Amino acid sequence: MERKKRIILIGRSAAGKTTLCQRINNEELKYHKTQTVQVINQSMIDTPGEYLERRYFRGALMVTATDADIIVLVQDATENGSMFPPAYSSMFAKPAVGVVTKQDLATEQQVAHAKQYLKAAGAGELFVVSSVTGEGVEALVRHLDFL
């Protein structure tokens, strides 16, 4: 039996990683703080934002990413700035996709800046989504082709 492709979601705390996982799985959207790495449906690895925010946890992201096929960099459109350093995705040696979240709360200019941050971090294909409205999520899922 062939294993599904597995993605790892990396981004700041409250960037929308867990909510995006819930939307993809057609679950009720409810906020809870991700405290540890969680594997969802054997196809998604949801990581705590602190793993990106704290330098001493970044090694844990690299180790956890070995179980993933695709890196998903998640950027909150309403956030000013980004935690992703330039060419960040290159350390994983795997395809990287960028996802701009909270599109329903952001201005066009904020979305454009979020896309720039993700491109600078090394994301290839970019998707703009709202986990609340569902906008853009289907296109992302089709691209990832893991369901």
UniProtKB/TrEMBL annotation:
Keywords on record: Nucleotide-binding
The UniProt record lists the keyword Nucleotide-binding: yes
UniProt record, GO biological process: biogenic amine metabolic process
Keyword Nucleotide-binding included in the entry's annotation: yes
Pfam family, one: PduV-EutP
InterPro entries from the UniProt entry: EutP_PduV (IPR012381), P-loop_NTPase (IPR027417)
Domain of life where this protein originates: Bacteria
GO molecular function terms listed in the Swiss-Prot or TrEMBL record: ATP binding
Entry-linked NCBIfam families: EutP
Family listed: Belongs to the EutP/PduV family.
Name assigned to this protein: EutP/PduV family microcompartment system protein
Organism encoding this protein: Lawsonibacter faecis
